[in-house]
Structures are given as C-alpha cells and as structure tokens.
Amino acid sequence: MVPQPLAATDVARLRVAIARLSRWLRRHDLAGLTPTQLSALATVDRLGPLRLGDLAAVEGIAPSTLTRLVTVLEERGYVERCPVPGDARASTLAITSDGHAALELIREQSTILLAGRLRTLTDEQRAALAAALPALERLAEPDPGDPRSR
Length: 150
What we know:
Blueprint: H1 8-25, H2 35-47, E1 50-51, H3 52-59, H4 63-75, E2 79-84, E3 87-95, H5 97-118, H6 123-140
Antiparallel strand pairs: 1-3, 2-3
C-alpha cells in the first residue's frame, strides 16, 4: 500500500501547531538567554568544543552577531574560550559546568510545563500523541543535506 501524503491543510496545521507549541515552551525564563543564545549554547554542548567560525556556520549567524552572542555567554560563565595549541590566533568554545547547569534547568522547566499542558488533554489525545512520537522524532532528526544540522 502506498502511503498517502498529508493534505496541504494538514501540513499547514502541523506547522502552525509546532510553531505555537515551541513559542509557548520558550516563554518561561531561559536562564537570562535569548532563544538564539540558548541555541548556540546547546550547540556547543552537543558538538563539544568548536571554533567560533564553525559555531557561526552551524547556527547560521554572521560572525559579528556571533561575537556579541559569545560575549554574553562568557560573561554569564556558560562558555569559555580555550586556545588552540599551535595557533595563537585561534580558540575554541567549550561549555562550562554553569552552562551545563543552565541547560539542564531549562530542560527541566520545559518538561514540567509540557507535562502540565499534556494533563489538559483527554486520554485518547495523549494516546494519539504517544503513537505519533516515532514520526515526530523522525521529522526532528538532522537533515544530512543541511550544514546547520551537523
């Protein structure tokens, strides 16, 4: 049996629902960070120490924007610059224990908020979401053709 594509209206509804839910989850305190700063911090956490240019490429932001962003993360103690042996001009960015703690707090808060919202659904709606999780997780996987998803 050939899988049927979703109707355009269903695709649009899914996009809107995901965007609204994402915005709603970001409304709480992000440890004093903007969503862009939080994304960069999570990238440094996920990819390990990396050069500033690599972080700019992954995040899709201009180097001048990155400089300001990294300065804020450094001032808050969430990241630190580490020299690259043999290249006096280069440095990598590494997450600190405070950065790990901030990410963990944000993740915990988001989970608590979402769990509370899920309790407002019927048993059938929660079961439908649970059944849809594998498909949603597949949609959220990195796109190998997108350099930002490395």
